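Marked as duplicate of an earlier ticket. Keeping the data here for the record.
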Amino acid sequence: MFELIRTIRIEGDRADGSAEVPLEHPMLADHFSGRPLLPGTWLIELAAQIAGPLAETMEQNRWAVLAMVQSAKLLAPVDLPASLDIEATIVRRAREIVTTRVTAWNGDITVLRGELVFALVESPPGTEAAVRERNERLWRWSKP
């Protein structure tokens, strides 16, 4: 899903970003004939792609792994292609758990509200290259 994220900006306990989902994405071929729709699981995952890096700012040597969808309300169908704006805010912090509140819009229509819980797990030895790649990706996304 990383390839669908276009921008991300993190400021304090808040992040916002954007994602573009093309009509021709190969994983969506024949998903809904006649009216191509973004699957709700994708919408939640895209919100997690914005909220995860926000949770990781709490602990640089740990990865944020989506541990639980505390709540999620899909408020409107998302026709494809879609341009989404996503916002995440930290609402609770614990040593190894971060809870975020997420909202997503398709244009001016609110399409998702929810709470996502992330577990902060230690980066295993040998993942230094992956950490560098993640940091470079975040840097690219944060450029205007």
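See parent ticket for discussion. The chain has one domain: 2-142.
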